[in-house]
Amino acid sequence: MRKAGKLLTAAALALTLAALGAACAGGGEEVEEPAAPATSLTIRAVRALKWDRQKLTVAAGQPVTITMVNEDTGVPHDLVIYRDPARTQVVARTGQCTAPCQEELRVTLPAGKYYYNCSIHPVEMRGELEAK
């Protein structure tokens, strides 16, 4: 009887050690967490009537600060966010400013897809924004 008890204890200990070894043997690789949607970001108007980014992602349902930096010397720009792809339903907008300058926009967006442009150069300067 004593021998059977020792065998069970040894077997249980071996299983426990094997499980711990498997759990700790992660191969040393770090798992990269997906980036959280931004609560603040900067978009730049650059030379040749372009944005430096055509896709933006922000946190849905949280106050977000978007800074529009105009680096296109001597050229006026603004940033307008729209609900619809036809860009007729304005959600928020900055003031216009002539570079070098910057304007700030604070907005809380429900989850979804939005669109943005510079209303002065609406064809050349446009992009998509996702709140998630």
Give a verbal description of the structure.
It is a single chain. The protein is α+β, with helices and mostly antiparallel strands. It has a domain at 40-131: Immunoglobulin-like (Sandwich). The protein is 17% helix and 39% strand. It is built from 1 helix and 11 strands. The protein has one helix at 2-24, and strands at residues 40-46, 50-51, 55-58, 63-70, 76-77, 80-82, 90-93, 97-98, 101-108, 112-117, 126-131. It has a 5-stranded mixed sheet with strand order 3-11-10-6-7, with no helix packed on it. The chain has a 4-stranded mixed sheet with strand order 2-1-4-9, with no helix packed on it. A hairpin with an 8-residue loop joins β10 (112-117) and β11. Mean pLDDT is 84; it is low at 7-33.
